[in-house]
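Example (one chain per record):
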Amino acid sequence: MARNKFDVDESLESPFDAGHLKRVIHYIGRHKWKMLLALLLSGIASVIGLLSPKITETVINDIVPAGDAPRLLVMMAAYLGIICISIVFTVVRSRMMAHVSQDIIYDIRKDLFAHLQRLPFSYYDSRPAGKILVRVINYVNSVSDILSNGIINSIIEIINVIFIVIFMYVTEPTLATIIVAGLPVFLAIIVFIKPRQRKAWQNQSNKNSNYNAYIAESIDGVRVSQLFARQEVNCSIMQRLASACRAAWMKAIYVSNTVWLSSSLITQIVFTLMYIAAVFWLGDKSAAYGLPGQAIAFGTILAMGQYLNRFWQPITNLANIYNSFVNNLAYLERIFETMDEPVVVDDKEGATELPAITGEVDFDNVVFGYEEGQTVLENFNLHVKAGESIALVGPTGAGKSTVVNLLCRFYNLRSGRILLTDEQGAKHDITDVTIHSLRTQLGIMLQDSFIFTGTLLDNIRYGRLDATDEEVREAARIVRADDFIREMPQQYETSVNERGSSLSQGQRQLVAFARTLLSDPRILILDEATSSIDTKTEKLLQDGIQAMLKGRTSFIIAHRLSTIKNCDRILYIGNRGIMEAGSHDELMARKGPYYDLYTAQARDQGVNI
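Predicted structure:
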């Protein structure tokens, strides 16, 4: 799919839905009392701050001409008190909203990560990890402030505008009308810019996502890049993506800056018109020009000038908040798009717990394909007895791994059923039971077993947290991992890096074997599990594998056919089903596809049949 390429822009599955705002309010609502208190503190500080221009007007118009020094000192103290109250309330509000902002980040990231944990393999098959990671980290960080301080500041600035308008009209109505006359023009500019601004920031979001996807892929594959001396080519690709990211950012900034530039321009125009009106229409010089009007005291003009700045300051702030909201709208859409991604592989309504199973498995007319128009398995039927070992062989892409993936319910069937038998003999469709109760009875060993950052003890205990240290060591001894672990610096307490880079490929597989054995599954799945282990280690491991298989149903996928000769049944998968089945000796006697595959591999290894 196209979205799986780092250099292809993602397109949102649906346009912005106003319902997203309700979801935003849901996160804000969790912290409503803190936000209401912050709103109250800010409101008090803002309203008190509006008294300072009135103090200026009173001092210049009344107190200074009258030479009233005691009253002047009172006004000075009041002015200083207003400044102190504003500072204290602002600091308290800022600290409070910092906590709220981080809480919102935590809430969104927790919900987003929990949803990602439930999404099926098909979701990750179609998206680079970098494009997922950028949503969990970068986008959540970006929107957190606008969801906390942005909401509070918007309300505060709206309250400021309302009170400033009231104070202006009380002080001088005509000049107040001139000041607010520029507001409709400014609003028209915002409405005009909005769709262009959203589109520009969506494009920037796409380019940033592409860049992150390539960086994540490059870091993950750095060994291969250096092996093939791809550094220069990789740098050129990075530069191209970074340039596209920069160009998209600059274009978005140009569009966004139009808002505050318009605000600044209108402020200056209104500021000039107000003083022209004050001086020539309403001022002392109006009579000299034969214009109607009455003189305005200098203190009133100065106060109105302060109110002018205070009026357009919250308007500009609201424009900046609007800018930030539109800028982050693209990020918010990506976050909610991920949260809305359907969990197609999930417990159905009324799903029950799967009882302890015997290991008997039935595939009943199973049909499956990874994409529309493609069929990997068609009318696939298979009955596996409890404790039977089944080997799956065949060409690459024939559907061997698909069989075990469907048993684990990593994907949904198109049609058909997979049935498991419990200890009372009842059969259960895996779609009717909870996924957790199903997978806790399955043990899966993959070709590339993931090792987590932590100690070797923690990695083996990963699938069964209540296991004792001795149980962990016993599992390691059975699969022959104990030998190399005891040679490590801190033995089982030795810390390993991400993906187990401090361990060899074979050692990682042995740790994964111990982890699987410790979970004590009823059905064991080994998907190319020994491919990364050298022949000498594999021979030592065979006893451990046999111990794992004892009493368990097992599905074994292996290209190294010598490892599956002793399985009860070998299934050759091809042409969307089972082409032939039987023991090793039976299939060799038939001289069919398995015989051809086995003899070809034996010749390559110089082995006589």
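Caption: Confidence is low (pLDDT under 50) at residues 284-294.
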